[in-house]
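Support case: adenosine-5'-triphosphate complex. Customer-provided input:
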Amino acid sequence: MPMNTNDDTSSEMVSYPELALNVITRDEHTISRKQISDNALKVLYRLQGAGFDAFLVGGGVRDLLLGQRPKDFDIATNATPEQIKHLFRNCRLIGRRFRLAHIMFGRDIIEVATFRGHHQEPSQNVAQQSKEGMLLRDNVYGTVDEDAERRDFTINSMYYNIADYSIHDYARGIDDLEDKLVRLIGDPQTRYREDPVRMLRAIRFAVKLDFDIEEDTAEPIEHMAYLLRDIPAARLYEESLKLLQAGYGLETYHLLREYNLFQQLFPSISEQFTPDYHSQTEQMLDLVLDSTDMRIEEGKRINPAFMFAAMLWYPMLAIAQNLMNQRGFSYYDAVMEASNLILDEQIKTIAIPRRHTATVREIWQLQLRLPRRNGKRAMRLMELNKFRAGFDFLEMRGEVEGGETATLAKWWATFQNAGREMRQAMVNDLDHATPSKSPRRKRPPRKKKSPAKS
Ligand code: ATP
Ligand code: MG
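Agent response - structure generated as follows:
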C-alpha cells in the first residue's frame, strides 16, 4: 500500500485555511479522458495500478474545465519520488526547491509531484523560511488535502482523480472559475511572503484567462512588489518569458506596471516611464510586445534576445547620452559602454543567458552600422547572421522615431527586395547624394603625414 509520509496531526508554524472537500462526480463535470494526453494517462494509470493515488492537477484541470487546451499536464501522487522512479524507466528526479519526477516521452515531459505537506518546526530542516517568511526549502510530503492548501490559487487547486474520474475541489475553485476570479488560497500577505512570485502568477493568469483578480488577492500586491528583489534572477528570467513571451505580453506588461511589478523586474526601463505612457521607451515596449504576441499567434518563431534588445534600447541610449554629455565619450564608445552598463544591471534582476545578451549586443551594434551603406558595405551587412533581426528592429525604431530612421528603414526594405542593378544604383545614389552627411573618408597618404615636431 502507498504510504503517507506525513502525519497530519503535527503542529504547524503557519496557520492554514480550513479547506472543505467538494467532490464533483464524473457526470457533473465536462472533463473527459479523451482531452488528456496519452502520456499523462499512461502515467496516471501506472501509478494507480501500483496502488498509489494519482491525480491530474493544476493548469491541466483548470484549462480543461474552461474548454481550453492545457499547456502541460501536471500530476500529483502520494508516491514518493523514489517510488515513482521505480515505476518508470524514463524517469528523472529534478529540482532542489521542490523534488519532482519528470517522466520523459521523447520531447513530451510529464511532471509528477509528490503531495506536499505543511511545514513543521524549523528544526526538522525540511521546510525552511527566511526572515521575510519566504519558503526556502519545501520537501515535506503530505496528504492530498494538505497539498491542495499549498497551491497558489483556488482555480489551480482542483484534482482530477483517475480512480473514479471525479474532481476533488478543495478551495471552491469551481465557483471562482465560474465567476472568473483569480483568488489566492489563504491569507494573501502570508502567501505572497512565502513566495513573492505568486504576485507575478496572479497577473499572468488574470491576463491569460481574462479573469479579474479578487480584491483581497489584488490589494497587497503594489506594496509587496518589492519582495521580488529577493527572488533569484534565474527564476525571474524564466517567469519573465512566461509573462512576456506566451502570447499575451502586451496586456501583461500593462497590468504588471499597474501593480508596480514591472518596475521591480526592469528597473532601468521603468526609469524612463512617463505619466502619459508616451516616451520612446514606452512606445517601443508597446510595439515589440504587440509584434511578439502577433508572431506567436501566427505560429512564428520568437527570440527573447530581440525582445530584450528592443525593450532596453532607449534606456541604453539615455545612459549613452549621459556618457557623451558628462564624460565626453564619442557616440560609438558611449553606446558600447552603455550597453555593458545596462546589461550588467539588468541581469542582476533577470538572468538573461549569455547567448542572448550576446545577440542583444549584436542587434544594437547593427543599429550603428546600418546607416553606413557605401561601397560594398550594404551587401556585406546583409550577409551577417543577425542582419534580419537588426533590420526588423530598425523598422520598429523607424515607427517610433520617424525622420531619418524611418527613411533608413525604408531604404533597407527596398534594397533587400531589389535586383543586382537596382542595388548598385541605390548605393551609387548614396555616394553622390549628401556627401556632407556621409563623406567618403579617404585615408591620408602616409607620406604626407606631418613630420614630428622637433
Ligand atoms: P500553466 O502551465 O498554464 O502556466 P499552471 O497552473 O499549470 O499554469 P504551473 O507553473 O505549471 O502552472 O504549475 C502547476 C501547478 O503547481 C499550479 O497550478 C499550482 O497548483 C502549483 N503551483 C505552481 N507554482 C506555485 C507557487 N509558486 N505556489 C504555489 N503553488 C504553485
Ligand atoms: Mg502547468
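The pocket of adenosine-5'-triphosphate (ligand 1) is lined by residues 58-59, 71-72, 74, 151-152, 156-157, 195, 197-198 (CB under 6 Å).

Case will auto-close in a few days if no follow-up is received.
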